[in-house]
Amino acid sequence: MPSSTQISYRKSSWWKLNQQRLTPWIFLFPGLVLFLVYVIWPIFNSLYISLLQWDGLSPAIYVGFSNYIELLDDEYFYISLINNIKWLIFFMLAVPIGLGLAIFLNQTIFGIRLIKSLFFFPFVISQVVIGIIFAWFYNPRGVIGPFLEAIGLGNYAILADEDFATYGIIFAGIYPQIAYCMILYLTGLNNLNTDQIEAGRMDGAKGFSLFKNIILPQLRPATFLAIVVTVIGSLRSFDMVAIMTQGGPWGSTNVLAYYMFETALSEYGYRMGYGSAIAAVLFTIMMFYILFFIYRMYQSEKKGL
Amino acid sequence: MFPIPIQKRPLINQISYRVLIPISLLIWLIPLIGIMLTSIRGLGDIAQGNLWGVPSEFLLFSNLKDVFQNTPMLSYILNSFKITIPTMIGAVALSCMTGFALASYRFKANLFIFFTFIAGNFVPFQILMIPVRDLTYQMGLYDTVTGLVLFHVAFQTGFCTLFMRNFIKALPNELFEAARIDGTSEFNIFLKIVLPLTRPAIAALSVLIFTFIWNDFFWATVLIQGHHAMPITAGLKSLNGQWISAYHLLSAGSIMAAIPPVIMFFLMQKHFIAGLTLGASKG
């Protein structure tokens, strides 16, 4: 009897001594393991696969950097890369447009809350639905084509036009993104420091100079977040391209995200290694932003500690 | 206030503002209004190009009936729920734990693990695609709802951990310290003190995850092949190919896909926006 109580006492005292040290790991365990298996390990695995020639079934052959060398000569890779840059540049318009909308809507009139939510709607809805709607608008028998015909300009289908199809998709993609930026700025405007604005107004700051010197600096956190989510959004253009053109006409609307999918998992063959090499390029581009974001968070953590 | 409240402006500005607001809203929502109008039309209207006028017949219900009878739409919707709800519960539960661990304990690897979660969260999906598909295949879960849910839970845990950790970190530390001095075990601190206080964060995350996962298309395409497990986004895409010019049916289907997240957003608007704008007002 006494010995058993002693043991359990010892056990609990060991636990008591180490409880503080062990508890975080117990709590981290399930989430961290799942995250390592499904997110972190696959990154490194993909980088390794990019050095292979592999169709997913037969044994893989190690080919070194030849997938990357092949990329350098691949016309479609360049088309996709340039389209990604177009997406990035035009997507950035969502930030100032979202800011403009937020300023326009930042009033207190009857029903404004409902109006703000309705403006936010496009972001809540699936990109698949947005893509279907815009594809229909652009269709020669849809909305814009017949309208142009009716006013005598002749029918026009932007998604069939090699030179402009990408812009048609970007326009559709930017629509929900504007809503997202708008909501970020509405929150930012809500939290402005009123004293500073009043002081600025006392000093005679008005209109644009007030906006530039007093409002915009205070909106910095909102701007930062809007830029981060817009960059990420622009690189995740897969859904829109898959729904609206599937990369066509003649590959002209491909982006890296879609081209990768197409080479690795579609009727054009299962080239896992080559697809991974494309993914690795996309990952490298994104990594700059991730590191920038983490660096900023690290700075604010250091301040906080 | 910025800009100056409209009430302090001349009357003419006030009136024009109030007129401008509904007009701009109407223009902004043209794509969505278009699809709603089309879902109540019949083929006749569409063929004649009557897209914006008064519908000659009100056929919303017959269009919906068409969609549900002739396509696996009902099964798509059910699958979407089967994928979305378990993911929501799983990711939120796991991140309550990881968030608590990272927010309330000091240990060497703490910041490193935290930043790993954040970094993983921003990674492009394509770099995960082949290994995740392979892994799912090897576990015998390819083309199943379970396989898709497992991945979604893992990936969303990254974002949720970032959110939860910051939320718990902002809670007053004295609460935990006082409980520890009273001899409360760490596990009970989590259950009895932290969990009740994180309720708003749990609500915000739940709506956000619901919307993200409901709207997911990429992973549904990569990990699901058959109609038996396909969620509504992937289902709509496959119907899109079949109904080349049956826009009235496509619109009705699209509306079915849009309704659940829209309802969720309206019910939980405050939490949704709080979650989305995390960090928009401070550093």
Give an account of the 3D structure:
The complex is a heterodimer of chains A (305) and B (283). Helices cover 75% and strands 1% of the residues of chain A. In chain A, helix 3 runs antiparallel to helix 11 (220-235), helix 4 (94-105) packs across helix 8 (165-190) and helix 6 crosses helix 8. Chain A has a two-stranded antiparallel ribbon. Chain A has a single domain (74-304), classed as Orthogonal Bundle (MetI-like fold). Chain A has helices spanning 2-49, 66-72, 75-91, 94-105, 112-124, 127-138, 144-150, 165-190, 194-202, 207-218, 220-235, 238-244, 256-265, 272-304; strands at residues 52-53, 61-62. Chain A has 305 residues and is an all-alpha fold. Chain A is built from 14 helices and two strands, in the order H-E-E-H-H-H-H-H-H-H-H-H-H-H-H-H. Chain B has two domains: 6-60, no CATH class; 71-276, Orthogonal Bundle (MetI-like fold), CATH 1.10.3720. Chain B has helices spanning 11-28, 30-39, 43-48, 60-70, 73-104, 110-122, 126-138, 145-169, 173-181, 186-197, 199-214, 218-223, 232-242, 247-267, 269-276. The mean pLDDT of chain B is 89. Chain B is flat. The interface between A and B is large, with 107 and 96 residues.
